[in-house]
Amino acid sequence: MKRSRPPSRSRSRTRSRSLNVRALVALAVMAGAVAIALTMPVRLGLDLRGGTQIVLETKSTETTKADREATDRTVEVLRGRIDALGVAEPTIVRSGENRVVVELPGVQDPKKAADVLGRTAQLTVHSVLGAAEKPADATEGRTETAEDGERVLPDESGQSLRLKAATLTGQDVKGADARFDQQNGAGWTVTVDFKDSGSDRWAQVTGEAACNPAGDPTRRVAIVLDDKIISSPQVDPSVSCGAGITGGSTQITGSFDDAEARELALLIKGGALPVPVETIEQRTIGATLGDEAIDAGAWAAVIGTALTALFIIVVYRLMGALATVALLCYGLISYAALAAVGATLTLPGLAGFVLAIGMAVDANVLVFERAREEQAARTRPSTRSALTAGFRSAFSAIADSNITTLIAAALLFFLASGPVKGFGVTLGIGVLASMVSALVITRVLAEFAASRPAVFRRPRITGISSTGPVRDALLRRDPFLMRRPRRWLAASLIVLVVAGSGILVRGLNFGIEFTGGRLIEYSTATQVDPDRARDALADAGFPRAVVQSSGDGDLTVRTEELSDTEAATVTKAVAELGGETEKVRDELIGPSLGEELRRDALIALGLALAAQLAYLAVRFRLLFGTAAVGALAHDVVILVGVFAWLGKPIDGVFLAALLTVIGYSVNDSVVLFDRIRELLGKERKAPFDRLTNDAILQTLPRTVNTGMGAVLILASLAILADDSLTDFALALLIGVGVGTYSSVFTASPLAIELHNRDTGSRPGRRRGGRTRVTGKSEKPGKQVPTSRTERQEVR
C-alpha cells in the first residue's frame, strides 16, 4: 500500500497542475472578453437600428450606356467594395433603370463611404512618351487624340507628361494589397498582382522603358487611376532593355498613410465600375423592424435560454448548473468576438446567436454522458476521475464535429459575399467559443466541484452518478433498430419524395431579396410611426412589406412586385395614418441577393460540402463521409420542400436558417460515426449493423438532450417572437427534428448498406439472443455500453 502512495501523489499533483493551467487560461479569456465587451459595442444591423442610405445614379459614357445591365454589374462591384470596407450586412439594390440604393448599418464616416463607392476606379498603365510642351492644366487635366489615345496628365510633382495609350487596364489585375515596406523605408505601398496576360504586357511596357537612358522621362511608367497619375516610377537600371520586369507584380509607392494605401488597394482589387456613378442623395434611415418586434425577440431569447438552462440543470444537477455558468461565459466570449471583428448583429443573427447557446450545450452533454458511462461501468473510483475520462473520451467527437463546421465557415467566409459571408463569420466565432466554453471553462468548474469533499461524499448531486432515464429505458428494452436498414431508407425516401414534390408542385415563393420588387417613398402631412404603418399594411394584405423611416419624416415601403391597384391600396393605408400623402419616389428595385451573390454562395456551399466529405473520409472512412453528406442532402430537400408546401417565403432569413441546419445535421452524424469508429476498433469481427446499433443506443441520450436544448429555445422564438422570427424558428424546428431523425435513421442505414455493398455481406440476424460489444464482464442484470477508456484499461 505504501508503495502505491507516491505515484498517487504524483498523479494528484499533475491533475492539480493541469487544473491550475486551465483555470488561468479561462480567467485570461474571460478577462479579455469582459474588457472588449465593455469598450467595443457591437454594430447593430439595419433591422435593429437603421443606418445610412446612399442613392447613386449611373451615367452613360461614349462607349457604354447606363442601362439596367450596366447598373446590375455596378451593384456587384459596389458589393465587393463594401465587403472590403468592412461593412457587414448591407443592403444593395438596383432602383429603376440606372439608380443604386445602398443602405449601410452603423457606418462611422458616411461621407467617406460615399466617396469610396462613387470612385469609378479605372486603372490603366501607360508608357511615357516624354514631357509635355503644353501644361496639362491648360486643358483641364488631360488631352486625348481620337487617333492614338494619347493623353497629357500631370505627375505627382505637377510635371506634365505625354502618355501613350493604355497598355494594361484593371481587367489585367488579379489582386492588390496594402503593405508597409519597413525594409526599404518606402512606408506604405500597394502591391499589384497581374494575371498571366497582364504579366506579359507589364514585362513589355517596362522592357520598352528600360531601353531609354536613366533620368529621361521616357524611362518612366505611369500608373493612372481615374485620370490621375498616382505613381510614375523610373524603371530600375538593373532591368535590361527588352526584358522588362517579370514576375507579374509591381509596387505602387507614394506618400500614403495606412488608410490611403488600404483604400487604394480595395479600389484596385474590387475592379472598375462599368460606368461612372454620381451620389445624388444621402440620408439617415430608421430600423426595418419596430421596437415591439425587437422587444418580443429579445424576451423570447431570454425565456428560451432560461428554459434550456433549467432543463440542463434538471438532467445533470450540479454539473448542469456549472455547464449553465459556462454557457453564459460562452455568450460573453461570442459577443466580445463579434465586437472585436466588427461584425454586424441583425435580428436573425441574434436569434442564431441564441440558438448557438442551445447547440453549445452539445459538447457539455457529450462529456457528461461519457462520464455517466464511466461511472456506471464501475471503472472509475470517483466522480472526478469519471469526469476526466469523460472529457478525454468525448474529445474526438467534439473536435471532429467542430472541425467540419469550421471548414464550412471558412469556405463561406473566403468564397461567398454579403450575408452568407457574414454568416460564416458568426458561425466560426460560435464554434470556437463553444469549444473554449466546454473544454476549458466547464472542465475547470466541474473538476473543481467534483474534488470538493462534500461532493465526494454525495455523488448523486453531481448528476453523473446514474445513467439517466433515457439510457435506462434503452438498456431495459435493448432494441435492434438496424435489423432491417433498408426499411428505414425506404421511409426516408418516402418523406423525401413527399416533401420534395412541393418544390415541383407549388414552386418556391422567393422573397424580395431574391426577386426584387417595388420601392415607394411617401411624404406625409403628419409624421407616421413605422410600427403603425407596418400594422396597417399587414391588415391591408401586405404582411411582408418592409417599412422604414427615411430622412426628415418620410416613409419608405419596400414590397414584392405590385400591380397599380395594389400600389393604390398601399398608398391609401399610408394616407389614412399620415393625412395628405405625396409619392416622392416609386420605382422597381432589383434583388438584394443578386445572381452573382447567389452563385458565389452556391459555389462556397458546394466546396464546403466537398471539403467536409474529404475530412470525414480521412478521419473516418469514405462511406461515413458519404452517408453524412447523403443525410445532409436529405435534410435540406425536406426543409425546402416543407416551406414550398406551406407557401412560406424563401428569403434571407430562411437562408440563414438553412445554413444553420446544415451545420446541425453534419454535427449529429459526426458524433454517431465517432462512436461507431470507436466500437470498430474494439471489436472488428462483430457485424457492422450490430456495431452501428450499439453506437445509436449509446449516443441516443446525448441526441435527445441536445435536441431538447435547441427545441426549447426555438419553440420560445416561434411562440413569443414577432412574425419576422416565426418563419426563422419554424425552419430551424423542422431542421433540428429532421436532422436528429436523419442522423439515426438515414445516415446509419446508408452507412450499413454502403458497407455491405463494399464487403459483399448481408445484415446480421438475431438468433435467440444478441451479442453485445463489451470490454469486460459487468454486474449481473446491468448492461452498460462500454467506452474507449474501459477498453484501454481492461486486457
TrEMBL record:
Q: Which InterPro entries match?
A: SecD, SecD/SecF_arch_bac, SecD/SecF_bac, SecD/SecF_CS, SecD_1st, SecD_SecF_C, SecD_SecF_C_bact, SecDF_P1_head
Give the membrane topology.
Multi-pass membrane protein
Pfam families documented for this protein: Sec_GG, SecD_1st, SecD_SecF_C, SecDF_P1_head
Q: Transmembrane residues, as ranges?
A: 296-316, 323-343, 349-368, 389-415, 427-450, 488-508, 601-618, 623-646, 652-673, 704-722, 728-752
Task: Indicate, by first and last residue, each region the UniProt record lists as having compositional bias (Basic and acidic residues).
Answer: 134-153
Question: Which keywords fit this entry according to its UniProt record?
Answer: Cell membrane, Membrane, Protein transport, Translocation, Transmembrane, Transmembrane helix, Transport
Q: Does the keyword Protein transport apply?
A: yes
What SUPFAM superfamilies does the record point to? Multidrug efflux transporter AcrB transmembrane domain (SSF82866)
Query: Where in or outside the cell?
Result: Cell membrane
The record's note on quaternary structure and interaction partners says:
Forms a complex with SecF. Part of the essential Sec protein translocation apparatus which comprises SecA, SecYEG and auxiliary proteins SecDF. Other proteins may also be involved. Forms a complex with SecD. Part of the essential Sec protein translocation apparatus which comprises SecA, SecYEG and auxiliary proteins SecDF. Other proteins may also be involved.
Protein name (database record): Multifunctional fusion protein
Q: Could you tell me which species this protein originates from? A: Streptomyces anthocyanicus
Upper lineage: Bacteria, Bacillati, Actinomycetota, Actinomycetes, Kitasatosporales
